[in-house]
């Protein structure tokens, strides 16, 4: 399994807008994709801003490519999400899941 990670920042005033966008638009679309195995949106306040870390889980790098395109390192950030963020990574990172416990 592959974990795809991506980071973005929002002002305190816009953070809820981004969280709402992710939960109402991004996550439902991801659930429809073959090979998608779940998502987390992590949130923390830092110095008056809010940092988000999105972690999506995929069966394989091929399933990531089916979502992200030929170069899976390129971040997919929709215009509505960009509008709520003050900055964001234009790249994503991928990790093999070495251990999963409960």
Task: Give structural notes.
- With 102 residues, the protein is α+β, with helices and mostly antiparallel strands.
- It has a single domain (2-96), classed as 2-Layer Sandwich (Alpha-Beta Plaits), CATH 3.30.70.100.
- The chain contains three helices and five strands, in the order E-H-E-E-H-H-E-E.
- Strands 1, 2, 3, 4 and 5 form a five-stranded antiparallel β-sheet that branches.
- A hairpin with a 2-residue loop joins strand 2 (36-46) and strand 3.
- The longest helix is centred in the first third of the chain and has 17 residues, at 15-31.
- It is globular and about 35 Å long.
Search tags:
102 residues; alpha+beta; Alpha-Beta Plaits; five-stranded antiparallel sheet; 3 helices; 5 strands
In short:
The chain has 102 residues and is an alpha+beta fold. It has three helices and five strands; from the N terminus they run βαββααββ. Strands 1, 2, 3, 4 and 5 form a five-stranded antiparallel sheet that branches.
The run of helices and strands is: EHEEHHEE
Q: Quick one: biggest sheet?
A: 5 strands, antiparallel
At CATH level 3, the topology is Alpha-Beta Plaits
Overall pLDDT metric = 96
CATH class: Alpha Beta
State the distance separating the first and last CA atoms: 16 Å
Low-confidence stretches: none
Amount of beta strand: 35-45%
Tell me the number of structural domains: 1
Give the helix level as a range of percent. Answer: 25-40%
Characterize the overall form: globular
Tally of individual helices: 3
Q: What's the Cα radius of gyration? A: 14 Å
**What is the name of the CATH architecture?**
2-Layer Sandwich
């Amino acid at each position: 399994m592959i974990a795809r990670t991506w980071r973005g920042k929002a002002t305190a005033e816009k953070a809820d807008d981004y969280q709402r966008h992710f939960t109402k638009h991004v996550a439902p679309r991801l659930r429809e994709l073959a090979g998608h195995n779940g998502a987390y949106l992590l949130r923390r306040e830092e110095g008056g801003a809010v940092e988000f870390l999105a972690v999506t889980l995929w069966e394989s790098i091929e399933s990531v490519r089916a979502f992200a395109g030929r170069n899976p390192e390129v971040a997919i950030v929709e215009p509505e999400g960009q509008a709520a963020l003050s900055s964001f990574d234009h790249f994503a990172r991928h990790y093999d899941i070495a251990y999963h416990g409960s």
